[in-house]
Amino acid sequence: MSRLVVVSNRVGPVKDAARAGGLAVALVDALRARGGLWYGWSGKTDKRSADHASIEETDNLTLATVDLTPREYKDYYNGFANRCLWPLFHYRIDLTAFDRSYYEGYRRVNAKFAHVLYPLLRADDTIWVHDYHFLAFGDELRQMGATQPMGFFLHIPFPAREVLAALPHHDAMVRGLFAYDVLGFQTERDCERFRDYVVREAHGIADGDTLHCFGRSVVIRAFPIGIDTEGFARIAAEDKDACRQYDKVTKALAGRTQIVGVDRLDYTKGIAERFHAYERLLQEYPDARRQVSYLQIAATSRGDVLEYRQMRDELDGLSGHINGTYGDVDWTPLRYLNKPLPRRTLAGLYRASKIGLVTPLRDGMNLVAKEYVAAQDPEDPGVLILSRFAGASYQMPEATIVNPYDTKEVADALQIARYMSLQERRERFEALMKRLKVEDVARWRDDFLSTLAAVPRRRPISAAS
Ligand code: GDG
Predict the structure, then answer these.
(1) Tens digits of per-residue pLDDT, 257-308?
(2) 288: CATH
(3) Residue 334: beta bridge partners?
(4) How much is the pTM?
(5) Are 48 and 194 in the same domain?
(6) 264 Cα: distance to centroid of ligand 1 (angstroms)
């Protein structure tokens, strides 16, 4: 079996992969099995520009990391990746900051990462590149002469053609993707949108799941990412910390129904709209007052990006308003936490919540939806309310699917969930769980890697030629 090289913006954790969750575990397993190399940003900045990677050998795998300069961090990471590609690919053109220096920084960092990796590669490596930070990386590596099989997986949605066209250099970005042999997306819808762009904007030709364009061919396919379903279910049911958390919360709830939301604090997750929907539940269904308690966990992320700070202020205001208006001396309607909690604690909290509220405005997949279901007690499972704009909704039709912009619809769904019969909850849970067990994170990884292994080896030409 050839060595696996994984390229992602952040590397690891390796030793504590179980604590970080499914994706890290799945990648570490595959890397260990093949004596692999995991390559990416160190998470650190240094004024001197790095021209080589720091190498760490650990448990039959190698970690190779590169520092960014403060300028690269500003232009590539905070700039083009997080203020341009992230909002645009999530349909937030209004939040997208188009700045030429961001784009140039992004190209420079993609080229730098390719130059540093190239000498570390072996002829028979298989290379798997992850996410929107590295759209141009494959092309840079091919231009240096790399001929190894190389696949790319996009964790976030691929946008509609008209939305992508708002990105200056969108054509160069898509052309660069043709340097890869396999392009993996979360859903069939993402594949359709990519195909639509290539055929109608770039005049490529679609032939089954192969696309021909720019003198190259690439296989495109959906690989819906999963979780370690059985492992997470076991933690929720058996782990000491998870059980302690479950008992503590259940006691404190004193018979109230807990609604839970768990997200990175990000505008794509629809947390403000969710707060409005919860307020609407309290307004329109007075019987819900004092009978429900909404726990929203939203650990701060990308706190040095302006739009994230503004959102945090907005949510602080909204939660204060809801508690000030509807709360009582002995009832807090909304508990809103800005800190991350250990994964095991989350598992216990999911299990103690009779309603899981997962309403992103746009999401590549959304793993919280899957974790919530996996954590439920099969004898008395809770109800998942899930946005139709999460990639997960295509695999989880037995959830209550809602439009997150329609606060009335979400409020009604909450009210229906409160009274859903045990039989209906069980039927929905069993159907969801059956699929989640089969379509788990190991299957995602294995499907991607076997698709990549089946693609005939490419000739050494660059996509840009
Ligand atoms: C991107 C795509 C796609 C959250 N808070 C805490 C915590 N979490 C964990 C959750 C879950 C993960 O973070 C979040 O995953 P999501 O899938 O929900 O969202 P993104 O971070 O935006 O991920 C997404 C994913 O990539 C994978 O392809 O599904 O669409 O946007 O596992 O449990 N974990 C801990 N404490 C917290 O407070 N320990």
Answers:
(1) 999 999 999 999 999 999 999 999 999 999 999 999 999 999 887 777 788 8
(2) 3.40.50.2000
(3) 294
(4) 0.96
(5) yes
(6) 7
